[in-house]
Design a protein that fits this description.
single chain; 320 residues; seven-stranded mixed sheet; six-stranded parallel sheet; 11 helices; 15 strands
Length: 320
Amino acid sequence: MARTVRPTDYGTPDVLEVADTPVPTPSADGVVVKVRAAGVNPIDWKLYSGQFHAVADKHKNATGLAESLPKLGLECAGVVTAVGADVTGIEVGAEVIVYPVAGAYADYVTAPATSLIPKPADLDWPEAGSLMLAGLTAAHTLHAAGVGRGDTVLVHGAAGGVGLLVTQLAAASGARVIGTAAERNHDLLREFGATPVRYGDGLLERVRTAAPDGITAAIDCVGTDEALDTSLALVPDPQRIASIAGTPRRAAAGIKVLGNGPGQDAGAEFRDSVRADLAARAGKGELRVLIDTTYPLTEAAAAHRAGIAGHAPGKLVLLP
């Protein structure tokens, strides 16, 4: 038997349980991976919080569970334990990064072979298991906003899991980074090459002081009205503002809204094209995945509570 973490209903992290399940077998074009580390991301708790889905009693099955309850865990890293009959080029024992995937909060996960890339030997399991979703989101934001050498880019939420990767990738491209964060994270941002500014009242003037020659692009990782209004006030071309979170106000603002919702840019083709490059950079130490806390699989609810609180920099990771 194997373990998997699943919600028993929609609600708070209290609805999560660890259940025993059979060890899976691969489909003809898929593989089974023994999970060594699974990234924890905001989308995970949003999926069962009711933020995306309200479930009425009529939609629940005979056991009382909502039939549409999601599988948790969209990224992981681990070791291949079984390979489907039609899969070539992947061997049992291979160490891999798996993304996209569903159900990575588990001892074992099944995935199509196309979701696997080799794990760099020098990349530790927690970093490998939590790189892809945040890293690809970060790369997508910079691509959408056209950030490159000579730009001065404002990154809202620069000390978060996505923001730290945006900061590093932007700096590596030759851009100057102004990053908003709580003061306790300012030294961390300086370590990653950014000029930190405190968010809150007076942000607009603090950014203008930090970047007297102006801001050419902005990346919003937090989705607050303050972030949107400050970006619109500072960036001459709203098409050089990319946002991954926020209210419907963004759609009318003329900025780049990234995501999987109606009218949003999912960037699937671009994201797929840069997976190997991100892994290679992380393996060489050119891109650092900051791990805040690791949790055993049985403490997934505690990891979600920490993530919802939202005060820690870096990534949260489950270790089965």
